[in-house]
Amino acid sequence: DAKTTQPPSMDCAEGRAANLPCNHSTISGNEYVYWYRQIHSQGPQYIIHGLKNNETNEMASLIITEDRKSSTLILPHATLRDTAVYYCIPQTGANNLFFGTGTRLTVIP
Amino acid sequence: GAVVSQHPSWVICKSGTSVKIECRSLDFQATTMFWYRQFPKQSLMLMATSNEGSKATYEQGVEKDKFLINHASLTLSTLTVTSAHPEDSSFYICSASANAGGLGIREQFFGPGTRLTVL
Question: Residue B95, Cα to own-chain centre: how many angstroms?
């Protein structure tokens, strides 16, 4: 599995866009990039995933660089409820998820 | 998204007793269920993977005789912590997945977790 590098923490003002970077330079061609988040004392929550193309859903947008070595998760209008630890996880379909240390996002009122 | 429940949400037990945690997929059939453990201020660590009707596959360093996993149906998996000790106190989280599409890419849906405290 590819290793990832994420900043340990970030702050974002409420209502502003939160841009969470992830470096996965060793990702292999068949590995998708998954993003999950974990709000304090809860189980992780799936956010979005992608392979090559940028993706958008009701929660977030995922921007993947052309060389696939990095990606950015975008929360367009962060709310206080988005305060959580965000995990970027390269994964093939049959593999288990291996959580790294993630980015602790704090949304500030 | 799919819903996964865990029961109980928290449990306190005495050292030496056994504790069973249930994980249920409520609105889909889970071909695979995963059990994770999370210590305070640490990330999730995968303990084992179980497929319905098969023996669980344990990660290195996880004692299979201490953490008994049963996946008897497509909607239920149980984790039993046998002879629990204080060092087993942790947040236990299960997840469930089902094959989705020809590529076999599977999202994992997580339960809310069970906080175990062993006195």
Answer: 7
Q: Does B51 touch chain A (CB under 8 A)?
A: no
Residue B3 confidence (pLDDT) above 60: yes
Residue B8, preceding peptide bond in cis (omega within 30° of 0): yes
A91: nearest CA in chain B?
B105
* pLDDT tens figures, A20-74: 999 998 888 888 899 999 999 899 999 999 999 999 999 999 999 999 999 999 9
Q: What's the rounded Cα separation, in Å, for the pair A57 and B2? A: 16
Distance between CA atoms of A45 and A54, rounded to whole angstroms?
A: 20
What CA–CA distance (Å, rounded) separates B53 from B109? Answer: 20
CB-CB neighbors (< 8 A) of A62 in chain B? none
Question: Are the beta carbons of B98 and B109 closer than 8 angstroms?
Answer: no
